[in-house]
UniProtKB/TrEMBL annotation:
Pfam families: DUF3857, Transglut_core. It comes from the Bacteria. The keyword Hydrolase applies. Gene3D superfamilies: 2.60.120.1130, 2.60.40.3140, 3.10.620.30. This is Transglutaminase-like enzyme, predicted cysteine protease. Keywords: Hydrolase, Protease. The lineage of its organism: Bacteria, Pseudomonadati, Bacteroidota, Cytophagia, Cytophagales. It comes from Bernardetia litoralis (strain ATCC 23117 / DSM 6794 / NBRC 15988 / NCIMB 1366 / Fx l1 / Sio-4) (Flexibacter litoralis). GO terms for biological process: proteolysis. Residues 88-223 form the DUF3857 domain.
């Protein structure tokens, strides 16, 4: 197909959506507004149309992909005026070909068309990314107010068939009508997969027309999604369609794109196989020094992994194809920084230099992506690279140095439970599952000895933690000034009331990755004990875990947890001389497979021993568990209101 034909297709797509606009002029603005204001009295706007149209065809001896997104948005309230600011994004893999944007302003019984004339292109910077090739075209829709409509059609040229988009069947406002249309040349094979569409009515039609197969999905009356705290990414619960090219049948050859995981790996391996072919004397010398007195292979792996964690700074890069090709290990070594691929590259090279060959570059998706290689063998599944070490057959240790504080043997928390694609040579690969670290390995433990001094409590605390709780705490403490470190200690260990003060503390094993973090501290809580006549009242529930975590009955999205964990806390209160126990509350507990707590009181060697243990045993709490969670919250909050009573003898 010629360049002219390519342009014609783009014009065709724009004209296709301009047909919607032409029809809009004859509609009565007041009637349309009243109709939808009545239907959506509490919504700021409604999408009357949300349509994506994709043409996948040949342009001479390559594949061309044009993707047009069209939205017709009706404004219902003054709050919706903020939606006038629009952005269209593009990157190395998708370039904007055309933007057509107008506001339909009510003008009597018809609309008046006002076209956007000014567009401004800017570089975008994603959170946590040092360099990003993402760009945006910014524009403001004119004369936006209630009753007005904005109609925007954006056409993009997708440069690589591996990087098609997804179509979401919800939005930040309700949708009256949604349609996805794929017009695909018969010699190009595609596949698709539906996610979270069980609760919507989604119609599908497939037909042949000339040299094309047309796939069409339509849905009506779709709910808006609500942004909720501690929710996973939208792709975990929003209904959407993922579509992708699997094979291209050229006249004289066939190109497999995503028929299977083998096709994806073949592409990844081709990008990475030309890296680290040259030796680096300085890097080799470092490896020799790190491992010279170590005979055990696994200890060598650990030493190299820890060196990269401590000496190579993680800096994220997203720059076209460079976002998929690992940097040379020598470059990362000399610069002392790298993205996930660069850090994996240097770990893999250093291990090979140490004579350890059973290590593999590994592609993986973080938990922000819910997809599996077995479902969709495309780059949509992964966004990260690590190294996998295989000490014995069937045993894998995942090395992710982007997390500077994770101990050897722990994957970074963000890849737990995810499929990993191991590159085991140019022709071989393996998909295996990263384990979820059990809660007993992610613990915090605290023991506190308390005594009463006037109305104050004076105490000594001993805290220890391992696994992810230690790593997270080390991340926060490491590098703080003494002043800010003490402020952190006050916040982290706070107990009882806002008159809690850490007087002094000592931190042990902060940067010893294979040892538990230990913190000893002395503290006081002023005006906490309540004296009434000859009785003392003290609430031993000084850390009220979960107390404010009741789940809203209207919540729709699941709740994400960084890692499984358990906390074991004990408080020993010295019974003052001349006093005895008048009242100890009843014990309380709640346990199931996903979460629970235990509260116990007992007298022990002239002290009251208070035990408070709790745990979370999930990464994702699904909606069917919300009612049971709230039941636990009700019970634990009842227990938190209990107090002990000491009485003069």
């Amino acid at each position: 197909m010629s360049k002219n034909n390519f342009i014609v297709k783009g014009i065709f797509l724009i004209l296709f959506f301009l047909a919607f606009i032409a029809n809009s002029f004859s509609q009565n603005p007041e009637e349309i507004y009243n109709q939808y204001k009545k239907e959506f009295p509490d919504k700021m706007a409604v999408l009357l149309e949300k349509n994506d149209n994709i043409i996948i065809d040949f342009e001479e001896d390559t594949v061309s992909i044009l993707h047009t997104e069209y939205e017709d948005l009706l404004f219902l309230t003054e709050r919706s005026v903020g939606l006038a600011n629009q952005k269209a994004y593009e990157s190395y893999f998708s370039k904007i070909e055309e933007i057509d944007a107008i506001t339909l302003v009510p003008n009597g019984r018809k609309y008046k068309k006002m076209k956007v004339e000014y567009f401004k292109k800017e570089k975008e910077s994603s959170s946590g990314i040092f360099y990003d090739d993402l760009e945006s075209t910014n524009f403001i829709m004119p004369n936006v107010s209630p009753k007005a409509r904005t109609q925007v059609a954006i056409t993009q040229n997708i440069k690589d068939p591996r990087f098609l988009s997804s179509f979401y069947l919800d939005s930040y406002v309700p949708i009256k009508s949604a349609k996805l249309t794929l017009k695909v040349n018969k010699n190009i094979e595609i596949a698709y997969k539906l996610f979270n569409t069980e609760n919507i009515k989604l119609d599908f039609n497939k037909k042949e027309k000339g040299d094309y197969i047309i796939y069409e999905w339509t849905a009506k009356d779709l709910e808006d999604f609500k942004s909720e705290d501690n929710a996973p990414r939208r792709n975990y619960f929003s209904p959407h369609i993922v579509y992708y090219v699997t094979q291209i049948n050229y006249p004289n050859r066939t190109q497999k794109i995503a028929k299977s995981v083998a096709d994806l790996y073949d592409w990844y391996a081709d990008l990475s196989c030309k890296v680290n072919l040259e030796e680096d004397a300085a890097l080799y010398k470092t490896v020799q020094k790190l491992t010279e007195n170590i005979t055990d292979e696994q200890e060598k792996v650990k030493a190299i992994f820890y060196w990269v964690q401590d000496n190579i700074k993680y800096i994220a890069f997203e720059d076209g194809m460079q976002g998929f090709i690992p940097s040379e290990a020598s470059f990362v070594y000399s610069k002392r920084y790298g993205d996930c691929k660069g850090m994996s590259s240097i770990i893999h090279k250093m291990l090979n230099m140490a004579g350890i060959e059973n290590t593999y570059l590994t592609w993986i998706g973080s938990r922000s992506l819910p997809y599996k290689y077995s479902e969709i063998p495309t780059p949509i599944v992964d966004n990260h690279m690590i190294v996998t070490y295989q000490p014995t057959e069937g045993e894998f240790i995942f090395l992710d140095a982007t997390d500077s504080y994770s101990p050897f043997g722990f994957p970074s928390s963000m890849i737990q439970g995810k499929e990993a694609l191991l590159g085991m040579g140019r022709e071989n690969h393996k998909v295996t599952l990263v384990p979820i670290i059990e809660k007993d390995k992610n613990y915090s433990k605290e023991s506190v000895l308390l005594s009463i001094s006037d109305k104050n409590l004076v105490g000594k605390g001993q805290y220890s933690s391992e696994g992810y709780p230690k790593g997270y705490m080390t991340h926060y403490i490491d590098g703080l000034s003494k002043e800010n470190e003490k402020l952190y200690m006050n916040r982290y260990f706070t107990k009882g009331n806002n008159k809690f003060f850490v007087d002094d503390y000592k931190i042990n094993n902060l940067n010893e990755k294979d040892k538990a973090l230990n913190i000893d501290y002395n503290f006081r809580i002023e005006d906490y004990a309540k004296f009434v006549g000859d009785e003392i009242y003290i609430n031993m529930n000084m850390e009220k875990a979960f107390s404010n975590d009741e789940i809203d009955k209207e919540r729709k999205s699941p709740i994400e947890n960084d890692y499984l964990f358990k906390a074991d806390n004990s408080i020993f209160l010295q019974i003052p001389e001349g006093y005895e126990i008048e009242y100890l509350p009843e014990n309380s507990n709640f346990e199931n497979d996903l979460f629970g707590y235990n509260i116990e009181y007992k007298k022990e060697d002239g002290k009251i021993k208070f035990v408070h243990n709790y745990y979370k045993n999930y990464l994702l709490l699904k909606n069917e568990s919300f009612e049971e969670w709230n039941k636990m919250i009700k019970e634990v909050n009842k227990a938190y209101r209990e107090v002990i009573i000491l009485k003069k003898k």
